[in-house]
Design goal:
With 284 residues, this protein is mainly α. It is built from 10 helices and no strands. The longest helix is centred in the middle third of the chain and has 28 residues, at 157-184.
Length: 284
């Protein structure tokens, strides 16, 4: 995503921060106060790993452990509540806590989507439409309430509330979209993954070739990475008869979790702010 570091000057020649319109980047000072990471290529790599982990981890609890979608949703809602409480309580960005909340939203999204689709019986189409409307409603209320929609400059409680609610609903939507593409459209998991990877590439191209606000493109990509992760997760763990590799859900989840942690540590060692925060978490 683009970063605009320009600072306009007033009539007296004194520089002052500009009022940042929807989708634009925050100033350097605001970024230092933000409780979420800067959006880079590695952000999206870790995000896709998190969404894949959400799929395999969610299925491990509901299917492998045979706890069902209702119980699984309650378990992951509890996990989400604990991690979110930790995220909200801190004053600065902590990479490990932040990504723990993201994983929690993906696991909750997986089990909640499956509960709506299969247990309640809404099906993929109805649940996708309902959840898509939910995302649009949240973004509209966010814009009307705070004047702009953010994705990097999240420093106050109201912005953070909208941020995580939007992520939770968008991850649930992404799960339904992934299942709809793989099952209802008959594309299977591998072709479904290619479809969403292509859509993400189109969003990335729009970032460089159009004037569509960065906030719009960010949330579009955020939604699309969820079904990409869902289809990748299903490719790993579904049986051969369904087009998967039939790998263990628990083992796959453990390997993905380790890969995520390694990448988070490596990426954030390059950032003095994030590295310092990792140290704070370790010594807390």
């Amino acid at each position: 995503m683009r970063t605009n570091h320009s600072v306009p000057a007033d009539a007296a020649g004194i520089s002052r921060p500009s009022i940042i319109p929807s989708g634009d980047r925050a100033s350097t000072a605001d970024r230092l106060m933000s409780k979420v990471p800067q959006v880079t290529l590695m952000f999206w790599v870790i995000k896709i790993l998190a969404t894949t982990l959400g799929e395999t981890g969610g299925d491990a609890v509901t299917m492998t452990l045979k706890l069902g979608y209702k119980v699984g949703s309650l378990i992951f809602l509890g996990f989400f509540a604990v991690t979110l409480a930790a995220q909200v309580s801190i004053r600065r960005f902590h990479p490990l806590i932040y990504w723990a909340v993201v994983v929690a939203t993906t696991t909750v999204g997986t089990t909640m989507s499956d509960y709506l689709d299969r247990t309640v019986g809404l099906g993929y189409v109805k649940s996708s439409i309902m959840l898509f409307c939910g995302v649009l409603l949240l973004l509209a209320i966010w814009r009307l309430t705070l004047g702009r929609i953010e994705f990097e400059n999240i420093a106050d409680r109201r912005q953070e509330t909208f941020y995580w609610l939007t992520i939770l609903v968008s991850n649930t939507l992404g799960t339904a979209l992934g299942d709809f593409t793989a099952d209802d459209l008959g594309l299977g998991f591998e072709k479904g993954a290619l479809v969403f990877a292509t859509l993400i590439a189109i969003v990335a191209a729009a970032h460089y070739l159009t004037r569509i606000p960065d906030a719009v493109l960010f949330w579009a990509a955020y939604i699309l990475t969820r079904p990409l992760g869902a289809t990748l997760g299903d490719t790993l763990t579904k049986p051969h008869s369904e087009g998967g590799l039939d790998l263990s859900r628990i083992t796959s989840s453990a390997v993905i979790a380790v890969a995520m942690i390694v990448l988070i540590v490596i990426v954030n060692r390059r950032s003095p702010r994030a590295a310092n925060d990792i140290g704070h978490v370790a010594t807390a």
